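re: that chain from earlier
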Amino acid sequence: MQSNLVETLIGALVVVIAGVFLYYGYSTSGMRSTAGYHVTAAFDRVDGLANGSDVRLSGIKVGTVVDQRIDQQTYQAVVTLSLAQDVKIPDDSSAKITSEGLLGSNYISLAPGGSTDYLRDGGEIMFTQGSVDLMGLVGQALFSTGGSKGEGKSGTAPAPTHAP
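^ sequence. v structure.
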């Protein structure tokens, strides 16, 4: 009887500690729904961007990515952003997908424009720059031809040209 009571108390303590960790994780993750307004932006590439990714203005988080979809006519990735209600973004602002570092996660960086009109709920950011294909750039740098006499990777001379 005594051992059952001890096991029950230890089990209850474990459940309470797990609940505390869950609450802490939820409160610090920024995954809470924010009361704000939604705008969209169309990008050619959104590699590494996920729902819940940050939207930052001058390095400060002002919103989150809430949805991603493909536009069936343009084949661009349309991203829906939820921005804080108290942050007013000029309607000629630009959005760029960037990363926190070489191995960091991607986020959307907003650069405010100079317009006196602001984006409203359902608005669209017109000026965008998609994510950079880092592996493609590394591949180009590694496998680019660097011969000073026009030699290719195989070491053969280029085809002769005919003067007019």
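The radius of gyration is 25 Å.
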